[in-house]
Amino acid sequence: MKKTAMILITTVITSCMAIAQQGDTLIQYTPDFKFRDGIYLNFDMVKTNSPIPKAKLFTSVDYNDKDFFDQVISSEKIYFYDNMGVRQEIEKSSIWGFARNGVLYVKVQNTFNRITFFGSIIHFVADVTTQTQGYNPYGYYDPYYSPYRSYYSPYSYYSPYSSRYYDPYYYGGYPYRSNSSRTDLEMFMIDFETGKSYEYNLENLEALLMRDPELYEEFVSMRNKNQKKQMFVFLRKFNEKHPVFLPAGK
């Protein structure tokens, strides 16, 4: 990221946090808590409940449109007015997420996913797309392919999928790879203390539970099979013992 962009983001965060802290009352988070609607550049803005509000976003979208944020983030850049009334811009890739109707959505890759369980350890699911590469099962690609040479070669074989003969030993013929992508639903955690994201797995959860020695010892004393079954139970126990406090929404 360019240096000027970093300075801009830091300035915006500082300004928003300063405004949010003026006269705000901290309250314990409950499922009824409402986050302030707006764009959150990073997790610090989530902790202070101080996003860039709708009123400061420069857009032609109607503020009352139910799909307001979906339309705003459909562009690669987001425009807004800073506290001096000067229009600024940031890349969509730079933002952490947004809140709509008091509910947080966090960005993973290029999609925004609803946070369903908030606390000291935040839990959510997201669609993750991965690129896959594998051998084509229907034969070999040979840039020097000759139907006559392949037909008479003792190593050639006929592919019913292409109606051609292939010879893998002719001029270094090689199996070609096919590229594709797949999208899976995966689970993640966010550490409220640091704002870091983790894959939701046994190893990462154990590391987060270490902050509570009693819960940690109880968790690791179980057999691995039982640990996997009890992961979310202990995540919830940790959140109950270590509540988080946030500035009240408006």
Counting DSSP E segments of at least 2 residues, the number of strands comes to 13
Strand order of the largest sheet: 2-5-6-7-8-11-12
Mean pLDDT: 80
Structural class: alpha+beta
Describe the global form: globular
What is the gyration radius calculated from CA atoms? 26 Å
The domain count comes to 2
Q: Count helical runs.
A: 8
What does this structure look like?
27% of the residues lie in helices and 30% in strands. The strands form 4 sheets. The chain has a 7-stranded antiparallel beta sheet. Strands 1-13 form a two-stranded antiparallel ribbon. The protein has a two-stranded antiparallel sheet with strand order 3-4. The longest helix has 18 residues, at 3-20. The chain starts with a helix and ends with a strand. It is globular and about 55 Å long. The protein folds into 2 domains: 3-130 and 181-247, no CATH class; 137-175, no CATH class. By secondary structure, it is of the alpha+beta class. The chain has 8 helices and 13 strands. Residues 1-20 and 137-174 have low confidence and may be disordered. Strand 9 (157-159) and strand 10 (164-166) form a beta hairpin.
